Amino acid sequence: GMRRTVKFIKQKMKLPVRKCYHAAKAGFFVILVVTILTLFEHWRGGKRAARAMTSGLDSEAAYEKAILEDEARIIPGLGEGGVAAHLTGEAQRLGEESEKQLAINVYLSDRIAYNRTLQDHRHPACKRVVYDAELPSASVILIFHNEPYSVVLRTVWSVVNSARRDNPWFRRANYVERGTGRTMTLGYPGQDPNSPFVYLKEIILVDDNSTLPELKGKLSHYVKTRLPPDLIRIIRLPDRRGLMLARVAGARAARGAVLLFLDAHCEAGADWLRPLLARVARKRDAVLTPLIDVLDQTSFRLDAPQHFQVGGFTFMGHFTWIDVPEREKKRRGSDIAPTWSPTMAGGLFAINRAYYWEIGAYDEQMAGWGGENLEMSFRVWQCGGTLETVPCSRVGHVFRSFHPYGLPAHSDTHGINTARMADVWMDEYAELFYLHRPDLRESPKVGDVTHRRVLREKLQCKSFQWYLDNVYPEKFVPVRDVFGYGRFVNNASGLCLDTLQRDAEASPLGVYGCHKRLEATQYLALSLRGELRDEEKCAEVQYTRTKAGDVDGDESRRVLMVTCHGKLHEQNWRYLPSGQLQHVESGLCLRTTGVSGSDATVARCRSSPLQLWTIDYSERN
Ligand code: UD2
Ligand code: MN
Q1: Does residue 56 have a pLDDT over 50?
Q2: What pTM was computed for the model?
């Protein structure tokens, strides 16, 4: 080594031997330092890589490890069939904590098998229906923003499993076609008959720009390694767009004949696909919803009652559940037949893909959450389609007590979206919405709706009046089915009847200074059938009679606002020529003490101005 190097330097540089020694030493020293530094860097890099692996940031191996850990956490049999799942002790406490934060017991969800099965709650007659073997193909679209990882995966698994060819319920569909003698195979036209899945073309997950890390690489890795290949796609939106645009993005990517939207916290029931596909195959412009069963946010118990409801709405712009109207029970013919529904909840529905675009997809200027469900409901009915609930298709959904995700800053998306809907579809009835939201009347926040009005024009859609008269005749319309409506002004005090913003069931009706403009809390009506009411609640007097038949202790009885039952009885009132409002069954009259903010009461009728009322708009005034 050293000697040869010295010799080399001596030859090349023609230096004296001693100087050559110094040069060689210096050279070796430099090389040594560089080598040490390089090794050190290498070692640090290795450390960094190892850290990255254990923290699960960007390595497949790390995702795999994390998923194996998740799988080890699952408690076999927990919540199986859809029964309530419970944990005890510390686990129970952690569960409650997660529920407080996320409105879903995520700690528990993480421990229930992702592919648990649910009991079959369908009406027995559904199991006897024979569907066509060939049906249109479905693209199931799941949208999510920061939904719990295990809950999303359970949704996906339930859809995958329900479409497996070897499900017992598919056996009935194989049949020999009359005439041709051809054996029909389960699936959709053009599908490979050897595919283990039927009717399901694809599942599209649309990630509305979630920020939870486990919904990124780990979710993709799970899908790649644990779920069937070529069936599931994930679309990642580059920014948060809200649920309407997320669904539109999914629809754009879809290739199936039928779009089937679900929230990302659902579990599909037995044979839920075919009843929807069969109906849409027969009626192209039918928009269909499954029965939505309730998955309990605390225990993941599936609540699937035999009796089901359809969709209604309030003029405040909210979706409500209503009983199937009697006329509809007659029309549909059978308990398991598709049932007309005036509105839909919005999250779970099937629609022919081409029809979805023709009818106007969504108002793409709606953002965040809320309002799109009533918009689509009114649009479908007014523009010639039908909205139907298909009782043989059942899907569980976790109804959360609050929204765990934040909505885009400073936005009242539900209000703004609903104003957009009202401006386009409700004609003069939009006024009934603005009564609740005077701040949004002509507000620049609502934006321009011209393109949607053009759509309405182009599709030659019918009026909202037509919708009320034909689709939802039982809806109480506070300007239509009434003897008088508006403010009820007390002659003595000048105060108005007022619900005092007490929203709870059976809250007392009160009086308050009259507003100049008609406002929601003072908008009451005396209906033609004889109810003193607002949109949903009726004034009710509870009383008993003495043995002699008199009303027991008839002074100062409060008047409670209770959900209208339509049977009159204790909810029955009449407006006397004197200007008194008399509760028919007890014979008592409505009065006030004249103090603003106090409860209204009923008492024996006497001629006192404290018992006299003037109604803004009535046939009497
Ligand atoms: C109901 C509907 C919901 C939607 C909403 C009105 C059902 C069962 N649910 O409320 O689908 O029609 O009414 O707008 O009919 N999401 C995003 N981006 C967002 C916000 C939400 O992707 O910015 C996702 C969310 O992760 C979920 C879906 O949209 O998968 C619906 O949201 P939700 O479950 O909070 O709405 P929900 O069920 O209270
Ligand atoms: Mn939901």
Answers
A1: no
A2: 0.86
